[in-house]
Structures are given as structure tokens and as C-alpha cells.
Amino acid sequence: MNVLLRFSFLGENFHGTQKQPNCRTVQGEFEAKLSVIYDVPVKTVLSSRLDRGVSALDCALSFHVEKRLDLDRLKYFLRRSLDKDIFLRSVQEVPETFSARFDCKKKTYLYRIQNGSERNPLYNRFSFSPVRPLDEAKLEEGGRLFVGTHDFRFFATPEKDDENTILTLDSFSLSKEGPFLALRFQGASFLRYQVRFLVGSLFLLSQGRIDERTIRSLLRGEEVPFRKLKAPGEGLTLERLEYDENLLGNGCFPERSSL
Q1: I need a surface site. Which of 5, 29, 40, 146 has the fewest CB within 10 A?
Q2: 120 with 258: CB under 8 angstroms?
Q3: CA atoms within 13 A on the CB side of 246
Q4: CB 254 within 8 A of CB 10
Q5: Could you tell me the CA-to-CA distances from 199 to 3, 27, 73, 184 in Å, in that order?
Q6: In terms of Cα–Cα distance, which of 193, 38, 228 is closest to 109?
Q7: 70 catalytic residue (yes or no)
Q8: Cβ distance 183 to 110 under 8 Å?
Q9: Is 238 helix (H, G, I), strand (E, B) or coil?
Q10: Distance between CA atoms of 37 and 50, rounded to whole angstroms?
């Protein structure tokens, strides 16, 4: 059977999602617990590769096993065994060909900024506080430049020389949510570190260290003088995944999650 798990986690205690030797990762935690439950090695497929310190409100993985186990019991066992920095939200059987990674239609990333003169240190685990407040109008104007189909090679770290860097960002929004500025980026796929470099470039734009013309040139794939800035990982959260409802039925996640 093929099983899909959806879960949330706090990223500060993980070296990212993808399994690595001698490091605590989200994938490694799930594979260890599942292998004990099923009494065979279990390999999983992640919906997203997230960096060290990045959190998720809606993340997913899928795995194939020969042994059938009641899914309510699987959910119970996993919730009992997983540490408190991971919360399992749902467990469901999916078609044999389903992949948590390749069948994901949309991803929404949220970047939280404490942008006022007063900052709450209790929020530092999942937000970023700049030394000086950022220009909100410039953040919003700059973010709109990224919407559409562009070459994002200069706003990411491609993992292979021949990796396709021409991608489409479906939407960007900026809103005030309680003590935070909330920057949201939605698209079908993202390059490694892409969202953090996009946010970093908006920081630079807000501070007057680059201008909109430079961003437009970079998005055309033109190599111009530009010192990339990668925004801190703790401000980034994978907020929502979207899959084909015909495969998953009624989703268990709201349009927008909140703390």
C-alpha cells in the first residue's frame, strides 16, 4: 500500500528535512519510527526539501509498504512515538503511483518579519527581526517583480549545472498579521534556497542597496553586479501544499494557517 502523511514541525531542532548521516532530520525521524512500526526498513519520499531551521505548517511524505496496517492505529503509534517538535496531522492511503513530491501542484511559503521597533523574543523561533525596520512599500513593490515566469538562477543555488532555472511564481503577497509582516510566495516548484534569496533581495531593495532595474535584469538572466543575500532560515515556513482533490478527497487544512 502507498501511504501519505501530512504533518507540521518546528525547524529549529532539525538539520533540514532531507535525511543525512549523523544529523537529526525530519525524514530520518519518520523513517526510523516507521521502520520500527512495520519491522522492515521504510523509505519515504518528501514533498519538499527544506533547509536547516525552516519550519512547516503543512509538509508531507509518502511511502510504500507491503504490510497493511490500520491507518488509525498507524496514526496513533506515530503520534505517540514522534517527539513534540513534530505533529502528525493526517494519514491516508493514496494510489500506488502517487508521490508526495511529484504530485504536489502548488506550494505556499510564508516568511514572517517582526518589523516594528519592539520585538518579542518568543517569536524568534519562527520569524526574523531586522536591525532597522524595512520599507514595507518597497517590499511589496519588489515582490511583485518576481511574479510570472522568469530565470531565477541568480536568486537560488541550483544543485546541478543543467538544472532548469526558468520557473513561474504564481503569486506574491504582503500583509500585516498580528506582530508580523507576512510575505507569501506561491508556485508549483522552487529552486534550492530560492525563497530565502528572494526575501534577501527584498531586504536589499528596502535598504536602497539595489534597485528594481537590477532585479529586472537578473530575472532576465543577465549577469549584473549583485551580492546575493540569503534571508535567515528561521523566518521561513512551508505553509501549505496543494494536491489533486480527486486523489486526496476533502483536504484537512484551511486556506491559511495561524499560530
Answers
A1: 40
A2: no
A3: 2
A4: no
A5: 34, 26, 41, 10
A6: 193
A7: no
A8: yes
A9: strand
A10: 26
Cell 513534530 found at: 86
pLDDT at 40 over 60: yes
Position 258 scores a pLDDT of: 46
Quote the pLDDT of residue 249.
58
* 218 grid coordinates: 537578473
* Three cell numbers, residue 148: 510570472
* Helix residue ranges, H only, 91-236: 136-145, 194-206, 212-219
Mean of per-residue pLDDT scores for the chain: 92
CA–CA–CA angle 40, 45, 48 (5° rounding): 145
DSSP state of 128: B
> 137 pLDDT exceeds 70?
yes
Nearest in space to 199 (alpha carbons), one of 232, 222, 170, 221: 232
Strands (E), the chain: 2-9, 44-46, 55-64, 86-94, 106-113, 148-151, 166-177, 180-187, 236-242
DSSP-derived 3-state class of residue 37:
helix
Torsion of CA 77, 82, 84, 90, to 10 degrees: -60
The answer to whether residues 116 and 133 touch, using CB atoms and an 8 Å cutoff, is: yes
In residues, how long is the chain? 259
* Annotated catalytic residue, options 39, 51, 83, 151: 51
* Distant-in-sequence, close-in-space partners of 22: CB < 8 Å, separation ≥ 6: none
> What average pLDDT score do residues 210-221 get?
95
Distance, in Å, from the CA atom of 23 to the CA atom of 125, rounded to the nearest integer, reads 20
